[in-house]
Amino acid sequence: MTTHGGFEPVFCTIVPPHVLDRLARAEDPALARPARRTLERDAFERTRRRLTTVVGAPAAAPRAGAEPARPQRTVFDARHGTDLPGRAVRREGDEPGRDATVNRAYAGLGATFELFLTAFGRDSVDGGGLPLDATVHYDRDYGNAFWNGEQMVFGDGDGEVFLDFTLPLDVIGHELAHGVTQYTANLTYFGQPGALNESLSDVFGSLVKQYALGQTAAEADWLIGAGLLAPRVTGRALRSMKEPGTAYDDDVLGRDPQPATMDGYVRTGRDNGGVHIDSGIPNHAFYLAATALGGHAWERAGQVWYDVLAGGELKQDALFAEFATLTVKAARARYGDGAEAEAVTKAWERVGVRTL
């Protein structure tokens, strides 16, 4: 199932626990209650995932002959319950219905499939045509979206802080990219390897959005979750790859804590060792490499990052320096000692990560 000889049960959310923790302590019950409910639900799902005996995610039926790769999507409706996957409401090839959330989830699954197939030659999350399942309208006022190792799940938000989690395309791409990591490097979800896991999802989530919009690196906003925050929140998104630490600065949410360089590296026992915080460092390195090279970010910088993720050399417990070294190696292997290798090397230097 992976190139690293073992399946690691994962439960990866788009909203970091430190954000929900702060909301849960808010004086306004309209903010605190949904955050506490979301934290409780996340803890339950995380524990259930760890206790479940995992044989492997469901495999797709082999494609017949030279049948071209195409997505196999199913969107389910939890109807504000928590039993997964829920009722199937749109399957592959069905026409759009009246529920905009269902339609966005379906389109987002397709856009993510298209990027990985067209840019990287990867047939779905597992590389072998794995069906893509997503559940919408999960729980009530649920302020998160997650990949549970088998499928994606989206809450509707509380309307006070978070809106519908299918609104930002990069959130959908982010969560599915966790599945790609699961089937390739299977990075340990703690500390620096966990931050790399989160960063890779941000990288490919951003690339999904850029690819769908036809944007160059210079045209992209490099924000993760733009359009997710409700009007009352002072912020643009959950994270910024261009300027980590600037995505939001709100009296309730607090200030975005992501560092852009190793000078601001955060050591913490919370959030699996700060996986959503320190991911800002490799995020910024990718932004620097992609914008230095110009053009479409998925064509060169994205290709290098994908080569490392799927190449078989990235260890499950890789540190930033080890990952950085592999990106330089991959750039040289694919492009030679040219602009690509130079841009990647300088990007890691600027964020304070030494290549080995």
3D architecture notes:
Helices cover 41% and strands 9% of the residues. The chain has helices at 17-24, 29-51, 100-120, 169-183, 191-213, 271-274, 280-293, 301-310, 320-335, 339-350, and strands at 12-13, 73-77, 87-91, 132-136, 145-147, 152-154, 223-224, 239-240, 249-250, 254-255. The strands form 3 sheets. A 6-stranded mixed β-sheet has the order 1-5-6-4-2-3, covered by helices on one side. The longest helix has 23 residues, at 29-51. Mean pLDDT is 92; it is low at 1-7 and 52-60.
User: Any idea what the shape is?
Assistant: globular
Strand order of the largest sheet: 1-5-6-4-2-3
Tally of DSSP helical segments: 10
Mean pLDDT: 92
Q: Which descriptors apply to this entry?
A:
alpha+beta, six-stranded mixed sheet, globular
